[in-house]
Structures are given as structure tokens and as C-alpha cells.
Design goal:
The chain is mainly β. The strands form nine sheets. Strands 1, 2, 3, 4, 5, 6, 7, 8 and 9 form a nine-stranded mixed β-sheet that branches. Strands 20, 21, 32, 37, 38, 39, 41, 44 and 46 form a nine-stranded antiparallel β-sheet that branches.
Length: 620
Amino acid sequence: MAEISDLVVIDDNNIARWPEGMAFAQVNNSARADEGLLARWFLDTNGSLITAGTSTAYTLTPNRTIAAYYKGLRFTVQFNVACGAAPTITLPGLLAQNLTKQGNAALAANDILTGCIYEIVYDGTQFQLESLSASQLNLLALTIANAGANLLTLNRTENDTVLHKALSIQSGSGSGNDYSINETGDGSNNVATITEQIGSTVIGTKTAVSKGLPLPLDLTEIATPAAPGAGLLRFYASASVSPSKPAYREGASGNEVILSPQAMPSLQGLKISNNAGTPNSKIDVTIASALITNAGIAATGQIAFTTNPASTKTCTFNGTTVTFVTSGATGNQVNIGGSLGATLASLLTLLAGSADVNISQFSYVVSGNNLNMTAQAAGTPGNSLTLATTVAGTTVTGMSGGINPNGTAFLQPVPSTNTINLGTTGANGLDTGTVAASQWYYIFLISNGSAFAALASLAQFPALPSGYTYAYRAGAMQTDGSGNLYRTIQRGKSAQYQLTASSNTASFPFIFSNDNTASLWIAKQVTGNGFAFPATAVNGGFVLTCYNGSAQQMMIAPNTSYSATFGTPPVYMGGNSNGSVAPFYGEMVLESNSIGFWSNTATAGNEVQCVGWIDPVNAC
């Protein structure tokens, strides 16, 4: 009887069952034969085979007809009894073959366990066991070279149901520090204890806690201590155990175990909305579960003014110069206002909307007579950003205080809601200062290592309240000209304006209204403070309305390089009223802080409104 191993890889050579010019009456038999050999192979490899025999002399009756052993012969087998030492396996009509592991190493007793399913493959000499049992892991050792002359050797040493000694670690060849990790717990609150010792002398112990996660560990990084009691050992929870419930860090000094997820920060069941009772000044942030990383700290700096700048005086941001002028400001120029406050407001507008690669390294906030800068990215690189000015009477505080993230993370495994009050500062409030008008506030989930809170900030990388080291940006909400929050709702990464009667969000915000570009493309800013989308938005949703005109035509596009003739490709999104209201909805990727707009008339109003946006946070 033919089996799947009899097939050949060259199609035209498979003629045993399908000869050229075969009789029609034989076609059904050949097709059935093919189905039969596939079925026999499937049953031999799907785990349904069960051995017979004894612990040292197994027998196996496959569905396939095996006339001789051949290299690559494979079975997926459930064993009827745990193995003894050096077992064999026999197929019908053939000689017994050794069962080995890791090449030709003989199996030890209980390397095969009763009822477990294993892959066995004939290598031309014996059957190798591909699957590894728990007892086999006890025999494995992994050696990792470090930066010094010594080696770190890891051995899995023990398996039981009460105390799990997951790993023992020996640095060097016997003269260095030895470590062992023991696990205890009930599956929902597990503790790993690391013990450091030289010989039999215990130097000290540290613990780490895993909430809602068993503690099988993958050793990912070891920094060998230079001396007893120094250095850092890092362990990462295996992604194969429970990616949705990774462990988190606990402990902050000395020889500590850091259980840190292999996944990116993520927010499950995220919802950001106005507080029902106080919608103008409070924000509810709800999650089903969340994982946030140690955020590091962004560098900060300041330019403190005392008088209104004189004409031609400058401020320089990481090499890009902004010049103050009496009137007619263009490019990186700012008109000097009637007061210092008016000038700083104009400066802030230019800086916040600039696409300059140097200016955009910072986020900016005006507080009194001070212009405060925060690096857009957390970490020590922000300390190298430069600030300078020629304005008389100013004091420049250079960028400093940036600290790199350390790669650890905090898990909140249960649902929670935190309410941000824009009238306060600190956890569940503003990061600093008082609420400002027409500003996008970025919403963060933060943690001090034991509990969650929320935070609102004008900066995308804010300084965290004292004691808080973990943070992840979840979204953004904007204030109107009076400092009241617009009504918006965000679920996962998708946000939209929530229309509410008798509020500041009774209709979708207008991006354009009654504009006439004389059939030419112009760029219109749509992201940033005072505009419809936050600077972090990557996709925008728009409603276009053309009405009350016989030939109202309007187009929008990601940029201004599209066709200037309505209806002639390339066209991205356009509308034509023909005398009646014709609203429609569309979305586009936001290529910059502006989109392209085209219309042929301003009669009776061409309108473009913003419905919502997508924020690139890892949330659902």
C-alpha cells in the first residue's frame, strides 16, 4: 500500500496511481487512494496514537504501513506508561529502535510521562524525542558569556508543587557569587526570592512580586556583580505564559529582581471622556487593565523675561533662531506686541505650530513672564538641547534633568477609573500651573509602583509628580477660549467630538467655513493648540458640506499637490452641491499639521468640520 512517503517532489513523476492516459474507470480509485494516504499520515501525526508495551519496550501500531525505517519518519505519540531508563520502541514487523534525546543520549527514567504527547522522529539510527519533559529540563545547563573573563552557568534544579526553585545561577568557576531563585504563591500573587551567596555564606536576599502571573522565568539579561552585594540581575516573564498578564517590578535598590514584560505598554478597555458631573473641568480615564513602562524624565529649561523684547533681538532653540520684529513678521519672526504677555503669546503660537526640526524638539508653555521648555522625548539626550537669547534682562536656564527610562513596567490587572481635576496639580490633576485656554492637554496614566493615577499636561513628556516613575500617554483633550473642556470621547485609540446641546460642543468644530480659494489649493493647519486635532493625531475624520449654490465645489486632500480641476484625477476627497445640501464623511492620514483645501466659491458656505481622530497609542 502506498503511503505519503512514497510521493516524489517532481509532479510528473507521481505516476504510480495516476499514469498518463489512465482509464476513466480508475480515476475514482486513484483519488480515493490519495485521500487514504493523507488520512493515514494525519492520524499518525495528530497525537491520537497511543503506545502499548512496557516502560522500557514500547510498541506502536501506526495507521500507515511502514515496511522499513527511514530518515524523517515521524509520529506524534501519547505514551501509555512513563519510561524507564533507555527505552526502545518497535513497529509491526520491524526491529526495536532506541528512543533518545538531544541526539543519541539515552532517556532517563521519567523523561517520558504517562499521558503526555511527544514528537518522535527517526534520524536514520534511532528515534529522537523532540518534546522535552520537566525532568529533562533539570538536566539542561545554559552558559552565557559576559563582559568579563568568567561565565554564568544556569541550571534548572528542581520541580515540585510547593517551592519552585526555578533557576540557580553561578558566576565564574566557583569563586564568584552564586544565586538561586525560589518561587512561592497561589497563582494570583506570586513571589520570587533571589538569594546571593558565596559558597554556603548567604550575602543577602531580594524579592519580586508577580500579580496574576505564574513565575516560570526566561533569563534575558544578567549584569554580573563586581563585588558581593553589588550589581543587578534582570529577569523577564516568559511571553508564552500569559502575555496579557506580565509581571511587574518591585524593589528599587541593591541586588534586585526586575520582572518586566516583553510586550509594549498597552491599555485595555480604555475610555477617556468628560466627567458627567463636571464636564468643563474634569476628565474620567477608565481602563479594564493596563501595562505602563518606567517613563524616564524629560529634560526641562526656561527663558525668563523681564521686559518686552526690542526689535531684532532673538531667541535660539537648539540652533534655530527666532527674531522679534516691530511688524510684518514672516517665517521664524514674531511681532512685538503691546505688552510682554502679548509678545509671549505670539511667540508661543509660532513655536507650537512650527515644523522646524530644532524647534519641534521641545514642547512649550508660557507661565507668567517665563517661557518653559520640555524635551519632546524623555531621557538624557534632552540635556544636550541648547537655549540662548539676546533679549535684554532675560535669564536662561539650560536644559537639564533628563533621565533615561529603565525598561521596567507596572501592571494594573483590574478595572479602574481615575478622574483628573484640572483645578488641582499632582496625581489626578495638572502636572503644573493652572488650566489654560485653547490648549491641548495630553492625558497620561501614571503609577508609583503600587497604584494608578492619571495626569493632564501641556507637554507630551511631562515631569511626573513626586514618587511616580511609570507613565504612558493615553490620549488628549482640548480647552476652549474660556478654558473649558470640549466634549470628546475616546475609546481605545479612536477619539471623536461628542455633540452635546447647550455646550461648547453643540456642533462639530469648523476647520473651514465659507472659504473661497479661487480654484487654487491652499494649506490649512488642522493640528495643534486652537485647532481641531491634537499634534499627536495620525488620522482625521472630516464632514464636507456644499449647499445653497448651483455649482458649489470643494476638495480636501492630505497636501496641496492634487489636481486643481474638480473631478479630474488625482482627487482625494471632494463635493459638488448642484443646488442642494450635500454633506459626506471621509478620513485621511495626516501627513503634516496642515491639509490641502480647494474651493471655487464662497457663496453661501463651503464647510469642512472635524468629527474625530486616531491617536497612535497602544490601546483598545
